[in-house]
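Recap from last week: sequence in, structure out.
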Amino acid sequence: MAADPAAVARLVLDPEGRTWRRLEGPGGCEAWLIGWPPGAETGWHDHGGSYGAFVTAAGELTEDSLSVALPTEGWRSLELADGVDRHRVLPAGRGRAFGSHHVHQVVNHSATVHAVSVHAYYPPLPLMRRFSRDGGTLRLAAVERAEEW
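Predicted structure tokens:
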């Protein structure tokens, strides 16, 4: 999908907010085509225990992630150790896969260009945890269930 310019171009882009379209994912995966206007970001989040992968199809995205597995429950605030931050710039055609305990944020830093990406998750997302971050402190902010999106 990400290598098909015609398919990517069919996504309606909004100048102010992210847009998305659910796709038929292979082998029971949940997949999404997502449009990112300039300056759009996800905020810090995880994928509820699902494995995932995404690739930038157009434009450029930046991913900031943590190289540490967080507990799945029983906490509201964690102090992060030095050296756990990772930073990746993903231009069109580049992507990454991640494990079931991955925490990240994805940003379109461009001031003028939309980005488009394709995401796949297995098993399909049961929930997403949203986090706030203040320096080395990560706080659980919200839990979104699949039926909410």
